[in-house]
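Hi team,

As requested, here is the filled-out complex form for the zinc ion run. I kept the field names the same as last time so the parser does not choke. Let me know if anything looks off before we queue the next batch.

— J.
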Amino acid sequence: MYYDAHTHLNSPELFADAQKYVQNFIDIGWKSMVIVGASDEYNSNSIKILKNYELRVSNWVLKFTFGLHPEILIQNNQIQSLKSKVEDLKKLILDSGCNSAIKPEWKNNVVAVGECGIDLYYPWSEQTLDLQKELFAMQCDLAQELKLPLVIHSRNAFEQTLDVLKNYRDLTVYFHCWGYWPEEVKRLKNFGLKNLYVWFCGNVTYKKADELRESLKLVWEDQLLLETDAPYLSPQIIRWTQNEPANVRYIYDYVSEFLWKEKNALQEQIEKNFRNIYGL
Ligand SMILES: [Zn+2]
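And here is what came back:
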């Protein structure tokens, strides 16, 4: 059984053929995937997937998060309108699954707020740092208010991410697509977050990614999840092709070999973690 803890069937690259990608995932022996929101477009595509019974297949196989990625600040740098965007996000989350009074059958569809965080990779990003922090903090507040975990995107911005998180140590946080050094895993472990999880995607398989593999060794077995982050970051074996959820199997294969852990045992461990972490 495979679990993809973080994927974007709602992205422009995958959305039109979402049904096909779900089928491919079923064909490899799937169990569940979490479709992660990042912008208005991603979030509204998620709603379309959520409403499409055919795609949901069964009640808990497709799960969702809704959030606003720091990249939305390329188009939007008005703090006032960001506030209203986060208000809209809250409404979207409540209407799509948290508020079981509205649609009892949609209860537990939404498993987290995010992805959100700080990204200083692009040339434009330094100028928007203050706004990025503000947008990130607003979503931390929302996660606190709705009692949901938070999916964190953090790239080239470890210190800046901690600078916001220091005010939210009681949150359950998922650092997705780990992109830092083992030293940073150690620092996070000692940072005092109530519930911390660190997950890995296809870049852990890249030839030059020794720091990610060393980080992987430091992550607790019961907090590990694997993800594709599709359509991005295809694993090494099929690198430079478009990624999709079914490719999570290559990441399982790689991690199983790297950690000297038998494939079945790894699958069992991840299944247990997935259910615990996403509260399923
Ligand atoms: Zn993502």
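Two things worth flagging: The pocket of zinc ion is lined by residues 6, 8, 36, 115, 229 (CB under 6 Å). The longest helix spans residues 79-98.

Thanks,
J.
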